[in-house]
């Protein structure tokens, strides 16, 4: 039997895409309609944002740990979190975790190396872009990276929280992403990580000036491999 996947969720749109990817692509590995057992727990996004807005990453970690403990009690074998931003609080959680945790940036960095990329643009919330979540994982694998300019970070952050988390996808917002990614390409990036788990709902390889590293689906696929191969 495949391992039981526990999802520490944050925003509905990103968590839904991750869950759906596990279920749909699980069938490719396990047979028609089949996928590993999945359990998900989430606090409301508002609860997380109250901590984030006041810079309380310890509080974010406590919320994550609460979900992790519930998932452990539900029988999960390992954990994933389809939210890039709150991975900043993982350091507060790890010493107390009872289960293994697959890091979203590890999944992305591994794919970047496999595909031969050298310099990765980082997109996401302003907290994620300004953090070391991706730079640490990229540097460990010899990858260079670039961040959006300050004004670009603010507008991308606005699009995420005023539109994408609500499932709203505006043509003008896509056009803005395309301009930013085009600029990053001109500056030497050869790929971009879609480092907010909602961004892949709007930006993809068919409409991006740069090849995309879809953090949501890459994490889901890493979880699938772990679930299936862990008991092979």
Compact summary:
The chain is an alpha/beta fold and 232 residues long. Helix content is 50%, strand content 13%.
**Biggest pleated sheet:** 4 strands, parallel
Assign the CATH class of the largest domain: Alpha Beta
CATH architecture of the largest domain: 3-Layer(aba) Sandwich
Helix amount, in percent?
40-55%
- Average pLDDT rating: 96
H/E topology pattern? EHEHHEHEHEHHEHHEEH
- SS-based structural class? alpha/beta
Determine the N-to-C terminus distance: 8 Å
Describe this structure in words.
This protein has 232 residues and is of the alpha/beta class. The protein folds into two domains: 5-103 and 218-229, Rossmann fold; 105-213, 3-Layer(aba) Sandwich (Rossmann fold), CATH 3.40.50.1860. The protein contains ten helices and eight strands. The chain has helices spanning 12-30, 45-53, 57-73, 90-93, 104-114, 126-129, 133-140, 150-162, 171-186, 215-229; strands at residues 5-9, 38-42, 78-80, 101-102, 119-123, 144-146, 191-194, 212-214. Strands 2-1-3-4 form a four-stranded parallel sheet, with helices on both faces. A four-stranded parallel sheet has the order 6-5-7-8, sandwiched between helices. Strand 1, helix 1 (12-30) and strand 2 form a beta-alpha-beta unit. Helix 1 crosses helix 10 and helix 5 (104-114) crosses helix 10 (215-229). The relative contact order is 0.18.
